[in-house]
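lol ok so funny story. i was supposed to be doing the assay writeup but got distracted and ended up predicting the structure for this chain instead. priorities right. anyway since i did it might as well share w the group, maybe its usefull for someone
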Amino acid sequence: MFSFLVTSQVGAWDSREYSFHRERFCEYTNDDIKARYRALDEPAIAELLRMPCLFAYEGNTHDMRVGYMRRISNRGTSIYFEFDFDRTIPPIPFAQFESLKLALDVKDRFELSRTHWAIKDENLLAVLQRKHLTPRSHRVRMLSIELTDIRCFKHALLNFGDSKPWTVVLVQPHRRSDRFTPRP
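and the output, tada:
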């Protein structure tokens, strides 16, 4: 899940704090998610603080940024929050965002023409990784298979994906459980 925050105030995201009118919270959000977060109680705030956020401006010209909330305060008719951008993820040009809209559940062209805070049931960082919009250090790939010999391992790697370099970590079963532990 991630928070999708859109504002019409150009430069608003530069201040690292912002406030939405309460009625704009959970717009363009699926009903089941809206029911979970709309009250903005302590458990909801705790979850929102752990979610990545995508900060956007209305229209189709400004770059978007990825970051995280540091603090959220329910102020009755408004919601105040403080945030930081993830400095390891560069700004996302709007032209590249167009190809992400379907995967990120951005409903239609009108969603980017209204100031609001939506909560999307999609994995923002995974979508950005698939589109190679995150730095290499964010690209973690895991392969979980039962291996009987090295040929099986080679076959699995060749058929798993692209030609990017892999880091191989050998694991062995932990004797008292089903967990695997790294092998020295």
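The chain is about 20% helix and 25% strand. Residues 48 and 164 are 33 Å apart (CA to CA).
back to the writeup now i swear
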